[in-house]
């Protein structure tokens, strides 16, 4: 019984870990925020449809129109979007 419980705990932990990874990439709030940032910087995008987190405040955003941007904070603390 104890082994079964340990096995279930491990499976639940792994499921939660990987589920968090997947939902972070599809977070609608993050996608909306990246869309707003790119638009405010005056770059063509339309809407961000997917995002990949590289590290804190550093994302790769893929737009509906096919443009891909790296959106990050530069050393001065300003938001920058570089076209990929």
Q: Strands, helices and their partners?
A:
Layout: H1 2-25, H2 28-40, E1 48-55, E2 58-63, E3 68-73, E4 79-83
Antiparallel strand pairs: 1-2, 2-3, 3-4
* Unreliable parts: none
The share of residues in extended strands comes to: 25-35%
Q: Whole-Å distance between the termini?
A: 53 Å
How many domain modules?
1
Largest sheet: 4 strands, antiparallel
Helix-strand topology string:
HHEEEE
Mean of the pLDDT scores? 81
The neighbouring-strand order within the major sheet is 1-2-3-4
Helix content: 40-55%
Task: Outline the structure in words.
The chain is α+β, with helices and mostly antiparallel strands and 84 residues long. The chain has one domain. Helices cover 44% and strands 30% of the residues. The protein has two helices and four strands, in the order H-H-E-E-E-E. It has a four-stranded antiparallel β-sheet, covered by helices on one side. The longest helix has 24 residues, at 2-25. It starts with a helix and ends with a strand. The model has no long low-confidence stretch (mean pLDDT 81).
Observed structural traits:
four-stranded antiparallel sheet, 84 residues, alpha+beta, globular, 2 helices, 44% helix
